[in-house]
Design a protein that fits this description.
five-stranded mixed sheet; TLP18.3/Psb32/MOLO-1 phosphatase superfamily protein; 5 strands; mainly alpha; Diaminopimelate Epimerase, Chain A, domain 1; TPM_dom; single chain; globular; signal
């Protein structure tokens, strides 16, 4: 995008000056190509990473000293100066990816500055001491002015000062600050109690209204409720699947209807969350109203599932029929375990043809599936022991956990094959699109070009096709990335030839473009959905919202494909973009989660890793914390899964208690 923008600006300027556009374009392309692009970096022991030497040695040391003192205020800050951002190119994505890759925790922040790209972003976890609103204010009021004036040290120092102020830093040790706060709080509480004991409330007087919650708090509550409700629905779907397999569709009809009603509520809530997250500016009143609606919709969905929970328990009767249920679960475990080697072999085959980036969503799926099955083995053993002791209630807890773990293992295995199939479709679609573009290039080359306007367009299209072709060659192919480049090239050449095509040809081309884009969008949605569902214990509201909206847009594209191809194309493009955002956000969440404080509690594998896999999968088991209640525990129809980073609604434990925290997804940063 930056290259095209520079090229357009330089070419426009050349026309005004009477220069030859082609010559200027070539020079501008060379100039742009000379600017190196930087992938996410590894942060070392120092807090300042200056890859472009914009700081003198003295400036770098002074800044390092300032940042070394920052932990006294309860926060830490790293600063990275690079040329331009790439993989991903978006400033926020680049900074958040770098933060996740370096295991930065909730109290640790990263300021990323692209000195040539003229972009920046301050990355921070939403569960940290500095709110998203405060981070945005620090960017706009402190960092951006310094960057615009070329004050690289001043920008980082301003970020440090802003974080310290927002975190309530005072220069005193953090424990002393907290102690003072506690003592003052106790004093205020005692004063209030004494005052109330001396003051008789008027009879019949109305209780004072509670203070209004801030909009930021409402947004956090809404996002947390949305994650928990989505988890409850996913677990309900899983349990309903077992019930249908055992009793048939008709017997489980009322539960299917209840689940459908709850999903309708959550789909509306996701749409509202997307409105909160999009680039359109919202008023304070709109944000508060949408947050309240999200909370109401989540509460209603939860109530709908709760209403059927007792009846669902009676249908499955796991407590009374635990031995039979255990036998079924054991048989299912054997069946799913047989697919582990096949999934590993399929992944190894794919790795000989596709680049690691293309296979990233399933790269650890066989290992994750093995962990889920290991966890299932523990639960099946616990169920056997509980049955032997005559404790049907505890046996039911273990059986449910085993069932969900086995189902996730199967899903992880299937996802490998699904991605392989989608990549093969993308390969074919890309090859077909290249053939079409080559034909168009040949046609366009025969069109008279007296003023030389066509030449730069043809040259640009040729570069895009060549770059995409390179992504389709060798043993490290990236067909989805190639399709993106080819679609851009196709759009460019189509605009050029639009005036010489007849209506029939235009219709054919539009339908072909729609088919190709829907292929790409379906692949993106499938990959994001499989990744998020099997790792939902770590995934926050941002990724789930983007995925829900992507799925909705893809359905809309299919519905409009025959009647309104142009509108369908826009819906398919939105689905593709949102699904890609969902996957990036989910991968960032999982990266922060796996390095966010719990690590490997099993000494290199075994019980600890299997339990952590179950935590990552959102499987919450009361038995692990001494529970055993038959209640929903926030997990759907009688289930036990479905906790969240925001905490669990019932017994057991949730991934949030293992250092998960919030998300680094936030609108902010920008250009300077």
């Amino acid at each position: 995008m930056r290259s095209r923008l520079v090229l357009a600006l330089v070419a426009a300027g050349s026309v005004l000056l009477g220069a030859a556009p082609a010559a200027v374009a070539a020079e501008s392309v060379a100039a742009v190509a000379a600017v190196p692009a930087t992938a996410p970096v590894a942060l070392g022991s120092a807090h300042v990473l200056d890859q472009v030497d914009v700081l003198t040695d003295a400036e770098e040391q002074a800044l390092e000293d300032r940042l070394q003192a920052l932990p006294d205020d309860g926060v830490e800050l790293w600063v990275a100066y690079v040329d331009t951002f790439t993989d991903p190119a978006d400033a926020a994505d680049w900074a958040n990816t770098t933060a996740a890759a370096n295991n930065l925790g909730p109290n640790q922040y990263l300021l990323a500055v692209a000195t040539e790209g003229r972009a920046y972003y301050l990355s921070g976890d939403s569960s940290g001491p500095v709110s998203d609103t405060q981070l945005t204010a620090i960017e706009q009021d402190r960092i951006a002015p310094a960057l615009r004036s070329g004050d690289w040290v001043g920008a980082a120092t301003a970020a440090a000062d802003g974080l310290a102020d927002a975190a309530g830093g005072s220069g005193f040790p953090i424990w002393l600050v907290l102690l003072v706060v506690v003592v003052v709080g106790i004093g205020i509480l005692l004063a209030v109690i004494i005052a109330r004991s001396r003051k008789k409330a008027p009879s019949g007087g109305a209780a004072p209204a509670p203070p209004a919650r801030s909009t930021a708090d409402l947004r956090r509550d809404a996002a947390s409720a949305l994650v928990q409700a989505d988890d409850a629905i996913k677990t309900s779907e899983q349990e309903l699947g077992f019930a249908i397999a055992q009793f048939g569709d008709e017997t489980a009809r009322e539960f299917s209807d209840a689940l459908a009603a709850a999903k309708t509520d959550i789909e509306q809530a996701f749409t509202l969350q997307q409105q909160l997250d999009d680039e359109t500016a919202d008023t304070e009143q709109q944000m508060r109203a949408w947050c309240e609606q999200i909370l109401q919709l989540c509460a209603h969905a939860d109530a709908v599932l709760d209403e059927k929970a007792a009846a669902f328990d009676r249908l499955r009767a796991l407590e009374q029929n635990a031995p039979e249920a255990l036998t079924r679960a054991q048989a299912l475990r054997v069946e799913v375990a047989a697919g582990t080697d096949a999934a590993s072999a399929r992944l190894e085959t794919l790795q000989t043809s596709y680049a690691p980036e293309a296979l990233a969503p399933v790269a650890d799926n066989p290992a994750q599936a093995t962990q889920r099955l290991g966890f299932a083995d523990q639960q099946l053993s616990g169920a056997q022991q509980a049955i032997g002791a005559g404790d049907g209630s505890q046996a039911a807890v273990h059986i449910r956990a085993a069932e969900e773990a086995i189902a996730q293992a199967r899903q992880l295995q299937v996802a490998v094959a699904t991605l392989g199939d989608e990549l093969a479709k993308a390969d074919s679609a890309a090859a077909a699109l290249i053939a079409d573009i080559e034909t168009d290039l040949a046609t366009a080359s025969s069109v008279p070009d007296p003023d030389g306007r066509l030449a730069p367009v043809l040259a640009g299209t040729r570069r895009q096709v060549d770059a995409a072709s390179a992504l389709l060659a060798g043993d490290a192919r990236r067909p989805l990335a190639a399709l993106e480049q080819l679609e851009a090239a196709n759009t460019q050449i189509d605009a050029l030839l639009d005036g010489i095509r007849d209506a029939q040809e235009k219709s054919r081309r539009a339908q072909q473009q729609l088919t190709q884009l829907m292929t790409q969008a379906q692949a993106q949605v499938s990959a994001a959905e499989d990744f998020i569902t099997a790792r939902r214990g770590a995934v926050g509201a941002t990724a789930r919202t983007r995925l829900a909206e992507a799925g909705s847009s893809l359905v809309q594209a299919r519905q409009l494909a025959a009647s309104d191809p142009a509108a369908a194309l826009g819906a398919a493009q939105r689905a593709n973009d949102l699904a890609a955002q969902a996957l990036r956000a989910a991968q960032s969440d999982v990266g922060g989660f796996s390095g966010g404080g719990f690590g490997d509690t099993g000494g290199g594998g075994g019980l600890g890793q299997d339990v952590m896999g179950a935590v990552l999968g959102g499987i919450i088991v009361n038995a692990l914390s001494g529970g055993g209640s038959r209640g929903r525990s926030g997990g759907g129809f009688g289930g036990l899964g479905g906790g969240s980073r925001g905490g669990s609604r019932g017994g057991g434990f949730s991934p949030g208690s293992f250092g998960g925290g919030g998300t680094r997804a936030r609108r902010g940063g920008g250009r300077f």
